[in-house]
Specification:
The structure is a single chain. The chain has a single domain, classed as Arc Repressor Mutant, subunit A. It has a three-stranded antiparallel β-sheet with strand order 1-3-2. The mean pLDDT is 91. With 116 residues, it is α+β, with helices and mostly antiparallel strands. The chain is elongated, with a radius of gyration of 18 Å.
Length: 116
């Protein structure tokens, strides 16, 4: 079996990135992909998180180089904005490809499923 054949035989779940795949972090990356930058409060509201929980996940993503976090002001109110980095966009793309391949394989394995 060639190296290309071995890579093709690997299960799609092996391509999932634990940092990206975690539900909250995947949500942060997906929302950040939709905008140039997204405000902390918007992420908190959309994902149903506490300040502390969102902060913890942002630290993981920032330490991994997947997002940047910028602090500033909107008028006199302090604000925090989150932006997807090029590395974060690539990681999200890889994650989505792996998920699509997983769904494709599962659909192909069960032709009785609707949409298969």
């Amino acid at each position: 079996m060639s190296v290309a054949d071995e890579a093709e035989e690997r299960h799609p779940t092996l391509a999932l990135d634990d940092t990206v795949h975690q539900r909250v972090r995947l949500g942060i990356l997906a929302i950040a992909r939709e905008a140039e930058s997204v405000e902390f409060g918007f992420l908190k509201e959309q994902l149903g998180l506490t300040d502390g929980n969102l902060s913890r996940h942002l630290k993981v993503l920032e330490a991994s180089g997947l997002v940047t976090v910028a602090k500033g002001y909107a008028g006199r109110r302090p604000r925090t904005w989150v932006s997807l980095t090029p590395r974060g966009a690539d990681a999200l793309d890889r994650e989505l490809r792996a998920l699509r391949e997983l769904v494709r394989r599962l659909d192909a394995a069960d032709p009785t499923r609707p949409g298969a």
